[in-house]
Amino acid sequence: xxxxxxxxxxxxxxxxxxxxxxxxxxxxxxxxxxxxxxxxxxxxxxxxxxxxxxxxxxxxxxxxxxxxxxxxxxxxxxxxxxxxxxxxxxxxxxxxxxxxxxxxxxxxxxxxxxxxxxxxxxxxxxxxxxxxxxxxxxxxxxxxxxxxxxxxxxxxxxxxxxxxxxxxxxxxxxxxxxxxxxxxxxxxxxxxxxxxxxxxxxxxxxxxxxxxxxxxxxxxxxxxxxxxxxxxxxxxxxxxxxxxxxxxxxxxxxxxxxxxxxxxxxxxxxxxxxxxxxxxxxxxxxxxxxxxxxxxxxxxxxxxxxxxxxxxxxxxxxxxxxx
Length: 323
Ligand code: ACO
Hints:
Strand order of the largest sheet: 1-7-6-4-5
CATH class of the largest domain: Alpha Beta
Bound molecules: acetyl coenzyme *A
Distance between the termini: 17 Å
Number of helices: 10
Number of strands: 13
Low-confidence stretches: none
Strand content: 25-35%
CATH superfamily of the largest domain: Thiolase/Chalcone synthase
Shape: globular
Helix content: 25-40%
Largest sheet: 5 strands, mixed
CATH topology of the largest domain: Peroxisomal Thiolase, Chain A, domain 1
């Protein structure tokens, strides 16, 4: 059977680091409050010349290099983002043009913090259907542009950045020791849309709007939704928490990550944690964390990796992949 194998990965961060202490000079908050509630110590904030497209392009270039392919080898670009450069065209086509790619197709995917999991799942379906041989999947965000910097309950939580992977169709035998994506599971429930949303848009206010969140409500649902969909991934493959080498969750909040790992009985040393360094970068958080685990030598070929995310909508999902 065809498997979507990860050939390479890359990431790009804005130049500007903002620590909690630096934030506390402008916002009525403290390093202690932010760290206790979220685990965040710092985040990267894009300067004016750094956009979702430029960060996405930079991450894509590193991933292509790492994969040992060029843009000529890519059939499709899928960009997960909720902070596009423009309402349209899709920022994916901007990145396509920046990379000098004139063939194939590029499109954006919008599932907020779950965007990367949605994009990887979509790429896997195209590859398994034989419609693409290699797909560049990018998660890129400039959430700082949609934050209300007067709202301390949200503005301290998010950051900017981008990450990317290259997926390639390879033959597998259909067993769980195959390399590539073994299973993926997506969910959404729009009845929660008021709990985490942006209060603007072209069809309603004709403005970009700002992020609004009922933090306690999000927290209340997060662990149950995350663990549910991971259990689905385990049931589909016969694998269990013991088989996992690395758990790379969406990096929203350390407490959510710790509680999810505990409920699933995933040992804490298997959890890749980057929320302290990056804050919540929405669709970019998983590929940014992948990059950290690759660079520090933790993530190696053959490792079984569990990706998971939950975000606005609500949307949520999980992917089991053998590196
Ligand atoms: N600095 C200092 N004090 C603050 C801040 C701040 N940045 N923000 C709020 N406070 C104050 C509040 O005003 C309140 O004060 P009061 O008791 O005098 O009224 C107090 O801190 C407690 O506020 P709560 O909102 O009750 O804080 P809570 O303990 O719920 O923590 C938080 C807030 C961190 C947002 C938490 O609800 C949470 O982690 N929710 C999950 C949300 C999340 O991670 N979302 C990410 C996007 S979704 C996703 O990616 C999964």
